[in-house]
Protein: Probable periplasmic serine endoprotease DegP-like
Amino acid sequence: MFRNIKDVLSRSTAMKASVVAGLAVAALATGVPAQISRSYADAVNVQAPQVPSFANVVDAVSPAVVSVRVESRVNPVADEDDSFGLGRGFDELPDDHPLKKFFKQFEQQQGHNQQQQGQQKGQQDNKGRLRPVAQGSGFFISEDGYLVTNNHVVSDGAAFVVVLNDGTELDAKLVGKDPRTDLAVLKVDGKGKKFTYVNWADDNKVRVGDWVVAVGNPFGLGGTVTAGIVSARGRDIGSGPYDDFIQVDAAVNRGNSGGPTFNLNGQVVGINTAIFSPSGGSVGIAFAIPADTAKNVVATLIKSGTVSRGWLGVQIQPVTKDIAESLGLSEPNGALVVSPQDGSPGQKAGIKNGDVVTAVNGDPVKDPRDLARRIGALQPGTKVDVSLWRDGKAQSVTVELGTLPADQNQASNDDNSQPAQPPQPSSEKALADLGLTVGPSDDGKGVAITAVDPDSDAADKGVKEGEKITSVNNQQVSNAGDIAKVIAEAKKGGRTRALFQIQSNDGSRFVALPITNG
Structure:
């Protein structure tokens, strides 16, 4: 039989009161103050493996990392067309307009004030005054004051100030810069002081997943440390033919440019140069120039102030799987020559459009970027053995490299077609299997594309009306009959695709189209 809960609680409460009262009486009888003792559980303490601290690395490398303040010469406002920044258009106001009268008086007064200031400052204002225009990061690579940063940090500067991690400010001079790799070298005079400096890491030992530490000057805050891992290698971000960036997920922001990313041995793995960010802040995708690239460029800049690169002088494009099949290549590797520039080292050596560069000095070429890096790493005047794939056979030529022009990345887009042939009278003929309708070109060079079937492979590959076909399988064509003849030869040889050279206003390119139908 269940007991009444109220009676049970009442008896329990009475018993507790009796016990407490008894304890109090006993305490008073002995002269000891009455205390009620309570026991608590121990605080949470989890025994788990501890993540390695970066503190030792940071302590060692921080003195070598600096902030770079860039100053540019600003012309006096009196020398500018819009003298006082008031905005153009006031001269067009009516003469009796109050604003025109006001601004005219203001300009006269400002002109008088600047004339007095100019007399006091002498010739300094004639040359312009230095104003801070940018901030970035950098790091020492020698005890006598050579330091590395990004070209885009210093490119607009007339004077440079280096701020050490202890706040010391030192003037620096520009030793050299290389826009193509976005690297620059500065030099400070420490008046006998020896600077803490860092060494380069070995690129071959950098692995995806390795811990890295970035140190720099984000948003002008001074020495700031972030950590992450190497996320990827060999990234191409479209900044130039020498793209080969290390991607890291350490927080890198504006002002980190030119700063180093270290491994846990305190060696420079890369130089922070770009971020991917829809917001402008770090989203965990940053790109660094690899140590090996930076080491070679920096050494050249210190030695000569500029970087001279070898030049082949050919326009190139990737070899896709379709193109490889059309040319009889077993693998889609190498760089397809679209056009050699007139008078270039490549043309003089006999390289032709439609050739595939497969190796340089026996080292296989993976793609156009790989070829550009290999040629660019060599000195002008160097003789190199260039392996080619031409007309289904391997060949080689010896090229004496030229000097890469200052305004060129790889080669010119100049057309290198055969001399013009007189146009042949023929009506437009639909190459139905290819989805193309063609006709004579206006200049007699190649075959004009007058229509493209939107459901065809040609349309999918970006072939457009108004462009023209200059060659098929590296054979010059001047009418639809020439195209049909080359395609028939390709089919007879067991090919399933043909390589079309397409000329447009943007230049020339190769497109592989299927020829199995029909």
Summary: The mean pLDDT is 80. The CA atoms of residues 67 and 222 lie 7 Å apart. The chain has four domains: 54-72+139-307, 76-127, 310-403, 429-514.
